[in-house]
Amino acid sequence: MTAIANKRKKPHQDIVFPIVNTCILVVLMFLTLYPVINTVAISFNDGTDALRGGIGLWPRQFSLKAYQALLTDELIWSAFGISVARTVITTVLNVILTSMLAFALSRREYVLRGFITITMVLTMYVNAGLIPNYLLISKTLNLSKTFWVYIIPTMFSCFNMIVIRTYISGLPEALAESARIDGAGDLRIFWQIIFPLCMPVLATVALFVAVGSWNQWFDTQLYNGSKKYLYTLQYLLKMKLATTNQSANAANATADALRTTTATTPVTIRCAITVVSAAPILVVYPFLQRYFVTGMVLGGVKG
Amino acid sequence: MTGSAGHNVPAIKVKKKGFFRTLWGQKQLMLMSVPMLLYVFLFNYYPMWGWIASFEDYKPKDGPLGSKWVGLQHFEWLFGRSEFLEGIRNTLAMSLINLVFGTLASILLAILLNEVRSKLFKRTVQTVTYLPHFLSMVIVVGMAQNIFASTGPVNQLIKALGGQEIFWLGEEKLFWWLVGVINIWKEVGWNSIIYISTMTSIDPTLYEAASIDGAGRFQRIMNVTLPGIKSTFMVLLIMNIGHLMEAGFEIQYLMGNSQVEHYSRTIDVFVLEYGISNNNFGRATAAGMFKSIVAIILLFSANWVAKKLDEDTLI
To answer: B249 near B264, Cβ under 8 Å?
Structure first.
């Protein structure tokens, strides 16, 4: 309707359109944030009152009970620790190893460059699938029921490698060349010259890896479901998701045992765990935003 | 045949000598890349050997070589199984909903953002809409359960407008669309990044020329912006077609329940239920392998069609 009206009176188009556009985008922001704020509001509400539902953007009966319950729960603390540990270790290892490979594959003179690049890129499209991977990790490598199952299978990502390699290719060649003339080997050139220059793109990749590791819950369920002290925060939250009926997952042995816990978990506690497990991302994210957009574009265009 | 092969031997030998000498000179580069190559072989290529279990009555203790060979029996079983056929249908349906509406939504958002003059407002919208991408699916499903609960905000709105309360999470006909809505909510901002960056690289003189020729705002969008993002759109389309078999499994697994299971079970959920939980590795591997092979065929076909149409291609 407005489109037709605008077409007839051209000068008005430049006044009406920006207003309509701004309204649409404001509504979109509201819709994006509403579920997040709603969850925070419920988590600060009184438990029995919350069962009535209908809480919007603000708690109806303010209460800190849900958070007090979390603070005294040992499992939450240990899960938090495991989540932090896996995220930090994975991120550090992944960033160093991935950028090292990216550097090697950015050297035009490297004779294995083509072969290794193709081998790596194919991994983005071909996947053996859940069962063969599960058998490799749990039966062949015997990594289940250990902390290392969170670290070892996630040390490399081809997409991130391409992002870093594209960035390195954009650096002036003369930097590496002059170091080479001074007698530096490739390892030294990488570690002392290229690596420090890559910080902006490494920040992006580190954010991707850290978020991916922090948000992971399925590896816990698959490999460490029987080890409470290896639970991660996301897995704990997954267990508390109060699905009305879980029998779609009933074939899963653990789900049956969990149903008793889910039924008794008050909605406020579930929301409080949600807030706790989302908080680190919500806090860090706005500061890193300008980096990851560049990284996303670099990888998206070349990848 | 033998003649030509014999003819080639000296040439290869000369080349090889040079090759290994150069390689030795690049041992530091090898040190940085070959361990990762071995890592990828172990974690990405070696498991494909496990596909052999698709043709076996696979027992982990006997391994792929010791298990009994059953030929195509698992595939026959799969295609006679309504759960698996439903899985294929659900996977494709949710992927297509996601592909069509997700792409439209992110292009629309990119166009709207591209028309915003205020830098601050643009960045605010971007920051807010990228946010859900970083939340885990567990968190997102948890929030969705609050929002779509019987006493949740959506139902309250419906009631306030005089409608009937809807049991969103237990209505099988709604499941695909609910997944579509949640996926778009989560990813629309993130997926618009690539279009926004393409739009900012469009030559501004094109817009000026269009304005001088009397094109209004909508005509500029139709005739300058949309053609400008065409090649990005094609590349992403090919990639997404290659991923059509990946409807995701997290959201379906986390939101699924017995009332909606005929519409929530994707191939991946099927593999998980039959493979890990029932210990039926052979059948589950066959299902997973079927999925991977169809995905590769889809990717190459899409790439081939794009090549025929003389568009930008991926490979």
So the answer is: no
Which positions in chain B touch A164 (Cβ < 8 Å)?
none
CATH top class, domain B81-308: mainly alpha
User: Hey, how many other C-beta atoms are within 10 angstroms of the C-beta on B77?
Assistant: 16
On the CB side of B266, CA atoms within 13 Å amount to: 24
Residues A129 and A8 in one domain: no
Q: In whole angstroms, give the CA distance from residue A259 to residue A242.
A: 8
Of A111, A270, A285, the CB nearest to B131: A285
Residues A46 and A98 in one domain: no
Beta bridge partners of A297: none
Task: Indicate the SS3 state at residue A265.
Answer: coil
CB contact under 8 A, A104 and B271: no
Residues 229-288 of A with CB under 8 A from B: 234, 237-238, 241-253, 267, 270-271, 274, 277-278, 281-282, 285-286
Query: At A283, which amino acid appears?
Result: V
Identify all chain B residues contacting A110, using CB atoms and an 8 Å cutoff.
26, 29, 33
Q: Does residue A136 share a domain with residue A56?
A: no
pLDDT averaged per 10 residues in sequence order, chain A, 303 residues: 48 78 95 93 85 83 86 89 95 94 91 90 82 89 92 90 89 86 89 89 88 92 89 90 42 40 66 90 78 62 43
What b-and-e string marks burial along A50-67, b requiring 16 or more CB atoms within 10 Å of the CB?
Answer: beebebeeebbeebeebb
- A215 has a chain B CB within 8 A of its CB: yes
**Helix, strand, or coil (residue A45):** strand
Distance between A232 CA and the closest CA of chain B, angstroms: 12
A197: tokens are 């220059």
Tokens standing for residue A279: 């908080």
| A23: closest chain B residue by CA | B112
Instruction: List beta partners, residue B56.
Output: B69
- Domains of chain B: which residue ranges? 2-71, 81-308
Q: What is the CATH number of the domain that holds A263?
A: 1.10.3720.10
**Bridge partners, residue A45, by sequence:** A62
Number of domains in chain A: 2
Whether the CA torsion B234, B236, B237, B243 is positive or negative: it is positive
Q: Give yes or no for A25 touching B (CB within 8 A).
A: yes
Out of A26, A46, A63, pick the residue that ends a domain.
Answer: A63
Domain that holds residue A247: 66-302
Which residues of chain B make contact with A176, given a CB cutoff of 8 A? none
- pLDDT, tens digit (0-9, with 9 covering 90-100), for B174-217: 999 999 999 999 999 999 988 988 898 888 899 889 988 888 88
Q: CB atoms < 10 A from the CB of B64, how many?
A: 18
pTM of the model: 0.85
Do A75 and A116 fall within a single domain? Answer: yes
Q: Are residues A147 and A15 part of one domain? A: no
| Chain B residue whose CA is closest to A184 | B28
